[in-house]
């Protein structure tokens, strides 16, 4: 369909087109004027990306779209809406209660009904290039729109803080219990270590171990020295048993040496007297008696010296046995002390482990206590809503213009539909298209002079047709 034909159809049915356009426009205008005006107030909140001042941690995923979408869902949640109802004390308003009774008949929760209505009038839009959320509220009253918008952003800030503080309080209670258990475990480990130290007479240090080890080394050295002395005394006792005359102690004894000298002199004198006087001479007999007495004295002295060697050997052996027994006892004591020290070291490790566990839990408890008492969050109100001066809806001019355009489109559509159901010849092209015959000419409209602007061929055809008719 050509534009000229469309225009001809519209002109032919201009009354219908005008009627539809006027009715549509007037209807939209009437509806817009009859609608109750709606005011929209807007407030904005900023989600700060700075680290948490308590935990020094950056909020994870802050820059991701999912985080911002989560915050949008939080603002639009029942929890925030119920907090708005509570903060504004809407349940105490008689008019609001009357509306709830009329709408629900007193069935269900009034708070939930109010929260659902508030959520329907609230809208949240996140910024595409920043961490700002825009909260708008629509209400028939401008003051109410601003009040509810501000109430929503304040409730959102408070709810966000609660969502952060409530888990911290729960964790604080949990860590409080764990801290008490860890402290009891630490005290039990310390008590066990103290009791063990008292029972075994040891200290946590290595001082006593060093003393006992030094004593063991000293006894070992003494045993080696005594064993050497005992070996020597055994050798001397053996030599005494084989022949006391060659015993070094006998040879070195001054009494024995003196007696040997006197005996040698007495024997020499006896021999001289015997040679001179004979055996029966009184001097010889006296000399023999003196020699016998010296020999008896020397034998007695040798026996005394030899006996002293045996006594010394016995004493050395006894001392060796005593030192060996003391060494074995000291060695057993050191081994027992080492075992006790090793077990004490295990108890010390238990105490250290319990101390570290308690310190870790105490540190976490302190942090969670600080978090549970925090009054700051990473959400802050950027701008508060102000009372709107003009209603946001209805937009009378825009609605009327859109209705005019829609009515015009509808009128043209109706005209085309009627044209298709009742086809009429509107121009020369319709004659040829519908009748399938050649067109001889175009007659001018009644009471009008022939159109001089017609082509010459059409004027000739028109004249020929006129003469033929005559």
From TrEMBL:
GO cellular component: plasma membrane
Main location: membrane
UniProt KW keywords: Cell membrane, Membrane, Transmembrane, Transmembrane helix
Domain Tyrosine-protein kinase G-rich: start-end pairs: 347-419
InterPro entries assigned to the protein according to its UniProt record, in alphabetical order: Bact_polysacc_biosynth/exp (IPR050445), Chain_len_reg_EpsF (IPR017468), GNVR (IPR032807), LPS_length_determ_N (IPR003856)
Membrane-topology annotation of the record: Multi-pass membrane protein
Polysaccharide chain length determinant N-terminal domain location: 5-88
Molecular function (Gene Ontology), one example: protein tyrosine kinase activity
Residue intervals passing through the bilayer: none
Subcellular location: Cell membrane
Protein name according to UniProt: Chain length determinant protein EpsF
Source species: Roseateles depolymerans
């Amino acid at each position: 369909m050509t534009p000229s034909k469309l225009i001809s159809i519209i002109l032919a049915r201009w009354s219908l087109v005008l009627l539809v356009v006027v009715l549509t426009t007037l209807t939209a205008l009437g509806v817009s004027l009859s609608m109750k005006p709606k005011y929209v107030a807007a407030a904005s909140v900023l989600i700060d990306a700075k680290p948490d001042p308590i935990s020094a941690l950056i909020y994870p995923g802050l820059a991701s779209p999912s985080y911002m979408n989560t915050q949008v869902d939080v603002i639009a949640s029942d929890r925030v809406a119920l907090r708005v109802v509570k903060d504004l004390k809407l349940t105490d308003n008689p008019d609001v209660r009357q509306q709830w009774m009329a709408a629900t008949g007193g069935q269900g929760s009034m708070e939930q009904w109010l929260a659902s209505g508030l959520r329907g009038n609230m809208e949240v839009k996140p910024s595409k290039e920043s961490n700002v959320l825009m909260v708008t509220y629509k209400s028939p009253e401008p003051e109410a729109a601003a009040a509810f918008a501000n109430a929503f952003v304040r409730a959102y800030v408070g709810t966000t803080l609660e969502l952060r503080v409530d888990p911290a309080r729960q964790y604080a209670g949990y860590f409080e219990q764990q801290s008490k258990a860890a402290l009891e475990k630490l005290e039990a480990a310390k008590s066990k270590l103290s009791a063990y130290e008292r029972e075994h007479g040891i200290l946590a240090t290595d001082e006593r171990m060093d003393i006992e080890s030094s004593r063991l080394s000293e006894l070992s050295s003494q045993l080696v020295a005594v064993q050497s002395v005992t070996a020597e005394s055994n050798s001397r006792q053996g030599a005494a048993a084989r022949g006391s005359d060659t015993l070094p102690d006998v040879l070195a004894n001054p009494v024995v040496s003196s007696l040997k000298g006197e005996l040698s002199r007495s024997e020499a004198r006896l021999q001289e007297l015997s040679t001179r006087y004979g055996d029966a001479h009184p001097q010889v007999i006296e000399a023999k008696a003196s020699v016998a007495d010296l020999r008896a004295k020397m034998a007695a002295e040798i026996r005394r010296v030899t006996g002293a060697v045996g006594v010394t050997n016995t004493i050395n052996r006894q001392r060796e046995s005593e030192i060996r027994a003391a060494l074995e006892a000291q060695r057993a004591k050191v081994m027992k002390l080492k075992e006790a020290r090793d077990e004490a070291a295990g108890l010390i490790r238990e105490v250290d482990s319990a101390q570290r566990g308690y310190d870790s839990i105490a540190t976490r408890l302190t942090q969670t206590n600080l978090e549970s008492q925090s009054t700051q969050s990473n959400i802050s109100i950027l701008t508060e809503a102000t009372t709107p001066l003009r209603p946001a809806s209805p937009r009378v001019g825009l609605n009327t213009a859109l209705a005019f355009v829609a009515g015009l489109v509808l009128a043209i559509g109706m005209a085309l539909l009627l044209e298709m159901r009742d086809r009429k010849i509107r121009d020369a092209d319709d004659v040829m298209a519908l009748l399938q015959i050649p067109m001889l000419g175009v007659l001018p409209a009644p009471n009008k002079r022939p159109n001089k602007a017609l082509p010459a061929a059409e004027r000739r055809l028109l004249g020929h047709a006129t003469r033929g008719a005559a």
